Amino acid sequence: MSGALLGFSIEITHLQVPFLNLMALITQRAGRVHVRVGGNSQENATLVSDLSNGKSIAKQSVDGGNPTDTPALLYTPEILYMLSNISGLVNTKWYLGVPLNDSSTFVVPSQNTIGNEPDLYARHGHRPATYSPYDYFGEFGQVVQAMQADVNTPVTNKLLAPSVATGDWTPEDVWNTNFIPAYMNNLAALTVEHYPNDNCAALYPGFGPPQDPQSVFPSYLTHASCKSIVAPYLNSSAIALAAGQPFVMFETNTASCGGFPGISDSFGAALWAVDYALQMGASDFSHALLHVGGQDVYYNPFTPPLTNQSKIHQWTIGPIFYSVLAVAETLGSSNHSQIIDLASNGDNDYTPGYAVYKNGTLARLALINFMTDPSGANDYTVTISVGGNALGQPSTTPSQIRLKYLLAPSVGEKFNITWAGQTFGGQFESDGRLRGAETMQTVDCDTTNNTCQVTVPAPGFALVFLSDGAFEESTPTSTHTFATTVTAAGEQKYSTTVDPSTLQTSNGHKGADGGHGSTSKGKHSGATAAGIYPSVVLLLAMLAGVGVLIRAVGNGWS
Predict the structure, then answer these.
(1) What InterPro entries does the annotation carry (predicted)?
(2) Which tens digit of pLDDT belongs to each residue from 25-64?
(3) Which residue range(s) make up the domain with 104?
(4) Rounded to two decimals, what is the model's pTM?
(5) N or C: which end of the chain has fewer CB within 10 A?
């Protein structure tokens, strides 16, 4: 297993330079990163040769029968060129989604996942109510036959399936159709998708009353939660291992339908994601892909600004992205890591721990504290002893260990988060690069008693490196980054200077020579032309903002 355990599942979209910086951070730690392009958007996407005005992607009308309101998409080969170019800059491995929602118009794919959540096709009206795993088995076979008959598709063994949501079917329902042996020569991995909860009732009718996020939050702050999410897949991961197939959690996150406000975008979710990922790693998952949605999604690891704000705002990095970095360093880049759940502290629900071995030798420890207590009373101290008389083994406890911490003041924190002392900053503040100097702690061990002590703050995550080699494998000496702004020499954008004497005597609606300012280059404000002065516009904007906020709260939680 490698540090590339966690990757991303993104919808078909444009990708910008900060994405390169974020992926570079991961590849420097894990060696590579896996990204799936698909999801709900793949089922309504069509590849076309070109689009008007040189566009590479265009949204079409929303299918009224689609419960997630996902618009149909048209995209050109430029999107594929973009993905290829990204891989040329950072070691990104792509999974491409192929639509299977309409069995009358199968598209012959070049590779990768066939269909998205086929167990929900009947529920979403894409198939008859009688649609079963055996029907999916047959349709998958039709795609394979079409590939084999296409001279332009020489590679027919890179398919991933079945990507069931464990909703109306279980993975075993698909395995029981003889799916794996029938398509063994065409499969590159076995895939499932799962969210432990959903916030759909807050967005769509027919899901019952909305859930209260504050009541739900505690369920994300226990080790039992992560074990219960993974438990239904233990049989399937064993089946995949026996078949020699990677087992991939192809789409997951805190909750479907965009997640919960105050949970999915919190430090608590970051700790949960670390525990969840390591639990999957200990249960023979090869990869797990965190889903990335649109602007109004709470669980996003990263969110670009709106297109019309991209010159004044930067990206927002969610707490869960810190989890990806922490997990990457926990497992390292060697691709020879093994991980076990220590059931530490009597399998305490709030203080889980994992041991990571490299080629059979203990290399790192991963320690989590889900509790929040600024007093320090619920910090806990771990005493580490490697080998020794108690185990009937020679002691190999090091004389010194190194630590990195994932920290925030509380599990409810959204932006004041650091990994090894570095941060991405607040909302709209990141270009995809970590800020600040990396910090780590060195702890001298008790060589007489062969013990080392590590304190895990409440809340927090501690990564313990038990050797210099383990530390050096996980810690990049440098990270190649990419420029996110280009400004011509002498050009100044998005700033203004006001003569203090003019400001002192002004009533606020006229500047020098009667001109008016604007936040858009080459344009003038239309406020005064419409007979509305800037001070009034500001007041109206504030009132409108309050109105929107009240409606959002009312629609979401009343």
Answers:
(1) GH, GH79_Enzymes, GlcAase_C, Glyco_hydro_b
(2) 999 999 999 999 876 555 566 778 888 887 877 876 555 4
(3) 6-474
(4) 0.84
(5) C
